[in-house]
Design goal:
The complex is a heterodimer of chains A (508) and B (429).
Chain A: E1 6-15, E2 18-28, E3 33-37, H1 44-51, E4 59-64, E5 67-69, H2 74-79, E6 82-85, H3 97-102, H4 117-130, H5 145-158, E7 163-167, H6 175-190, E8 194-199, H7 202-208, E9 211-216, E10 219-224, H8 230-238, E11 256-266, E12 272-282, E13 286-290, H9 297-305, E14 311-317, E15 320-321, H10 327-332, E16 335-338, H11 342-346, H12 353-357, E17 368-369, E18 372-373, H13 375-389, H14 405-416, E19 423-427, H15 435-450, E20 455-458, H16 462-468, E21 471-476, E22 479-485, H17 490-497
Parallel strand pairs in A: 3-8, 3-9, 6-7, 7-8, 13-20, 13-21, 16-19, 19-20
Antiparallel strand pairs in A: 1-2, 1-4, 4-5, 9-10, 11-12, 11-14, 14-15, 17-18, 21-22
Helix pairs in contact in A: 13-14
Chain B: H1 23-41, E1 47-51, E2 64-67, H2 68-91, H3 99-118, E3 124-126, H4 127-153, H5 161-179, H6 182-206, H7 211-234, H8 238-241, E4 249-251, H9 261-266, E5 267-269, H10 270-288, H11 290-300, H12 302-307, H13 312-338, H14 350-360, H15 365-388, H16 394-412
Parallel strand pairs in B: 1-3
Antiparallel strand pairs in B: 1-2, 4-5
Helix pairs in contact in B: 1-2, 1-3, 2-3, 4-5, 4-10, 4-13, 4-14, 4-15, 5-6, 5-7, 5-13, 5-14, 6-7, 6-13, 10-11, 11-13, 14-15, 14-16, 15-16
Classes of the chains: A alpha/beta (508), B mainly alpha (429).
Chain lengths: 508, 429
């Protein structure tokens, strides 16, 4: 008992006329860590949702131990021994760990009355076995994300999953937490659990996989051994040779024009989400702000831009105080801003590419005179930018929301870089962007630095931070752990992201 | 890593200790001062008589005699003490305990009562009658708010409580008259409420129509439909269609003779007993059973429930239907208990007050029950004070329940948090 062999044969999944998966064959041998590698939007998650019974495949077959199965829902998949840890955790925040684990398979006494003791006991057993340190009675919303992920794994293990699907499990973790997760995966494998590991991060994939299957645009490109080089794997993912390293010249620091002093943002619950942060950026350098998601990065950038309330401290650009100014004034002072979520804050999806390119300048010459806009000028401008930034769109009139993630991001970037800037802030500049576009966007950011603009990058991807930064500032729980030079070892940065200062000693 | 050097720290000095909101201490303080001044120093000089037992009761308890002005000063001081305690806790960085605002409210309401009664032409009131009447008026509210709890906990906003009450009231009158049995009428009312709810469920869950809009439309539809049938059917043929008779009052021997709580708890119609049972069952079900865990999961994070093999939309559909049935029973109370016939729009906005009670009660069956009692008390106070002749104009008294609702929901609830997925349709993928 125990081991399960999983086979997908010719799986296709169509949404309307768009094929997210096309004719995919995949064999997951028992007791292996099988990695699905592919860019964002390549169809990895769709495939796993098919396997987990959340989507019905348009064509193809799933075989468990060589027996064809037909999953009508996740319940069927779980019964067949398949468990899944979703990228966005499927935990009810206001429930306890035990309630979350029990949900759907609740131990009950007469009349459906819950008896949670059994669940608590199981959680403690699993928690002790793998060294998880999870309290069954803690509220999930109070737990750090790393622990929440363990709760998800416990959920699958309690249901005796023999195949565990991990969908982009490292996206929300610090480097140290990631290493711990990789260890847990190895332990699970040693215990006979097969793992399907979905990722687009080459380092992790190479570290832990037995087999790597690369997926591109919904199709299997091929298998690769974990010994394949990062460049090879990246080329398989993208479909053409890519250079993974950005060859940028050393920074030419000039005058320090952007100064943040003791910036504090108080949240509605009374805590400081940004807590007394001070730093400065010189013209011609890139300061990258690193940190795990949700440690105050969003509030920091928004405070600088003027869209946060309850901000104290000082933010000066070219000697001018920006705090307290309306957003429009801040932008007119020469601040370019790429927000972290382009679909929510960066673009108006139903508007055309051309309109999105002038969202900040629509009321000014040459795009407007008096109360009338000049559509011809807007279109002309759009054509130039589409050319310059290599935006792949059917036309300047196409709705921005219909473009791919990478091209949407290029639209936002093109708009923000079209004005003469005194400061450029980009938050998550390449989140959900294909590798090809990442290269391009990184080059544009460095180009902006090289014309002498102070640049601030906020990124939760440590690779990106290391790639772009001239100096690295690390945030943890709203506080600045420290500012270190580029070239600081990964491990040190990882510890800082967990709140441990660069010289040792804990911040707490 | 050695711990000899310390991590670089930003230059911030120690921040002041975290303080909870001062909304509660502040509002208690202001209310206590107002009470002391208006009920005490400016209070009426008559003595208010609060009768505890009625003339025919087995156990006679002497009436409370409270002099208006002195009473007002005493109550004012007690209230000030409570407010001071709350403010003291606030300065210590602690929240006021939950019981404090409740105890404050009870004393405040009592002080208000003494003030009004002592100022009336006939300064005498039966406390037992006041409380019992409040419960009677609260019964439809309790059923309505339980319906709201069941729907919102599963992620569907039920604005149609009013329509469900009204549908229940009409059907109860009609069926009870035609069959000659109020009990069959009661069952029919549950079915009618469930039917109204099913329309809400189908449109909001299956066809993803905005839940608020469906709810509002349903309210208007039920009002129009019952109004039309009332006019064409019931008015010309009252004997045939609109003389349902009442549900019998079934006093429980001995227990019903206990002063004050006897008549409240043990001298009810079947609908009254059902109310207590429903509150207990819904509470136990929601928080202690598998069904409840799943229901709450669906209302908080439907996708999580789905990935665990729980059928989100079926759970929602049946919960909303059940909620409708419960509200239907509440509607029957209008035509089978309170009075014995249907009139147009007999529910008179109680469905919306039930909605407020559900929010005031923080989406908890017991909280909703207590909030409903408070609103029932406000309704009852309005009618009783009209009878004894207070100096306060009756129009203001008529506003009382709604004022209480607004203040209760807006002011004292604080940041209460409903189910996260309430009002959001669930679409797979």
């Amino acid at each position: 008992m125990g081991v399960v062999k999983l086979e997908l044969k010719g799986i296709s999944k169509a949404f309307g006329t768009f094929y997210a998966n096309q004719d995919i064959d995949l064999v997951v041998e028992s007791g292996q860590i099988h990695c699905l590698l592919g860019e964002n939007g390549a169809g990895k998650s769709t495939l796993m949702n098919v396997l987990y019974g959340l989507y019905e495949p348009t064509a193809g077959q799933i075989l468990v131990d060589d027996q064809p199965v037909n999953f009508r829902g996740p319940g069927d998949a779980m019964a067949a021994g398949i468990g899944m840890v979703h990228q966005h955790f499927m935990l009810v925040p206001v429930f306890t760990v035990a309630e979350n684990v029990a949900l759907g398979a609740e131990p009950t006494t007469f009349g459906g009355v819950l008896s949670m003791d059994e669940t608590r006991k199981k959680i403690r057993e699993i928690s002790d076995h793998y060294g998880f340190d999870v309290d069954p009675d803690a509220l999930v919303e109070d737990l750090p994300v790393g622990v929440q992920q363990r709760v998800e794994i416990i959920k699958a293990l309690v249901r005796e999953a023999k195949v565990l699907i991990l969908d982009e499990p490292t996206a929300v973790l610090t480097p140290q937490e990631t290493d711990e997760l990789l260890d847990i995966m190895r332990q699970l494998k040693a215990g006979g659990t097969s793992i399907v590991f979905i990722s687009h991060k080459l380092r992790e994939v190479k570290a832990v996989s037995d087999v790597i299957t690369v997926i591109r645009r919904g199709k299997v490109v091929g298998d690769a051994p974990p010994t394949a080089s990062a460049t090879e794997l990246a080329s398989m993912m993208v479909g053409r040779p890519v250079s993974l390293s950005l060859n940028k010249a050393p920074a030419q620091r000039k005058e320090t024009t952007f100064v943040v002093e003791n910036l504090t943002v108080r949240a509605a619950n009374g805590t400081n989400v940004v807590d007394g942060i001070s730093f400065d950026i010189a013209q011609g350098e890139i300061l990258a702000v690193a940190g795990v998601q949700g440690n105050g990065q969003t509030e920091l950038t928004e405070a600088i831009l003027g869209i946060q309330d309850h901000v104290t401290g000082s933010v000066t650009l070219d000697g001018k105080q920006l705090l307290g100014l309306p957003v429009k004034e801040v932008l007119r002072s020469g601040v370019g801003f790429v927000p972290e979520d382009r679909t929510v804050d960066g673009l108006v999806g139903p508007f055309s590419v051309a309109e999105n390119l002038v969202l900040d300048l629509y009321d000014q010459a040459p795009f407007a005179s008096g109360i009338s806009m000049k559509p011809a000028k807007v279109t002309e401008h759009a054509k130039a930018k589409i050319e310059e930034f290599d935006i792949r769109t059917p036309s300047a009139g196409a709705a921005a929301g219909t473009l791919s993630g990478g091209n949407q991001q290029k639209v936002v970037m093109a708009r923000e870089l079209s004005r003469p800037l005194r400061l450029f802030i980009a938050s998550q500049p390449t989140r959900g962007v294909d590798v090809g576009s990442i290269e391009f966007l990184h080059k544009r950011i460095v180009a902006e630095r090289d014309v002498g603009t102070p640049v601030m990058i906020v990124s939760t991807e440590l690779d990106e931070v290391i790639e772009l930064a001239d100096r690295i500032a690390v945030l943890y729980k709203g506080k600045l752990v420290g500012i270190v030079p580029a070239g600081t070892p990964r491990d040190t940065l990882g510890l800082m992201m967990a709140g441990v200062g660069p010289e040792g000693g804990s911040d707490d | 890593m050695s711990a000899t050097t310390t991590a670089p720290k930003s230059g911030s000095t120690a921040l002041p200790a975290f303080r909870p909101s001062m909304k509660v201490p502040l509002s208690l303080g202001i209310l206590a001062l107002l009470a002391l001044v208006f009920f005490g120093f400016l209070g009426p000089d008559q003595t208010a008589e609060m009768k505890i037992s009625d003339a025919g009761d087995a156990v006679a308890v002497p009436a409370l005699m409270i002099p208006g002005q002195v009473g007002g000063v005493v109550f004012g001081i007690v209230l000030l003490a409570m407010a001071a305690y709350s403010i003291y806790l606030w300065t210590q960085g602690e929240r006021s305990p939950k019981w404090l605002p409740i105890a404050f409210a009870v004393v405040f309401v009592f002080a208000l009562l003494v003030w009004i009664v002592a100022g009336a032409r006939q300064p005498s009131i039966s406390l037992a009658g006041l409380v019992a009447g409040s419960v009677t008026l609260a019964v439809p509210l309790v059923f309505g708010s339980l319906s709201g709890v069941l729907c919102e906990r599963v992620g569907v906003v039920n604005i149609a409580i009013e329509g469900q009450l009204l549908g229940g009231a009409f059907t109860a009158a009609l069926v009870a008259t035609m069959t000659g049995s109020p009990y069959i009428g009661l069952i029919a009312a549950a079915a009618a409420g469930a039917a109204v709810s099913m329309v809400l469920a189908v449109f909001s869950i299956k066809y993803l129509v905005n839940q608020i809009i469906v709810g509002v439309v349903l309210n208007v539809l039920v009002s129009g439909l019952t109004g039309f049938l009332y006019g064409t059917l019931m008015v010309p043929n009252k004997e045939q269609f609109n003389t349902p008779g009442r549900l019998d009052i079934l006093p429980i021997p001995l227990l019903s003779d206990i002063p004050i709580i006897g008549p409240i708890l043990f001298e009810q119609s079947i609908a009254g007993y059902l109310m207590y049972i429903a509150v207990a069952v819904v509470w136990f079900g929601l928080f202690k059973t598998r069904w409840g865990l799943r229901v709450r999961a669906v209302g908080e994070h439907p996708q999580a429930a789905d990935t665990l093999g729980i059928n989100v939309n079926a759970t929602r559909f049946w919960n909303v239907t059940l909620g409708g049935a419960i509200a239907g029973i509440g509607g029957a109370v209008f035509t089978l208990v309170t009075i014995d016939s249907f009139t147009k729009d007999i529910s008179g906005g109680r469905g919306f007050i039930a909605l407020a009670a559900l929010i005031f009660g923080r989406w908890n069956p017991i909280g909703a029950f207590l909030a409903s009692l408070l609103f029932g008390f406000a309704y009852n106070l309005q009618s009783i004070l009209g009878i004894i002749g207070t100096p306060v104009p009756s129009q203001f008294m008529a506003m009382l329940p709604y004022l209480v609702t607004i203040f209760a929901v807006a002011g004292l609830v604080g940041k209460s948090r409903g189910p996260a997925a309430s009002g959001i349709p669930y679409v797979k993928g």
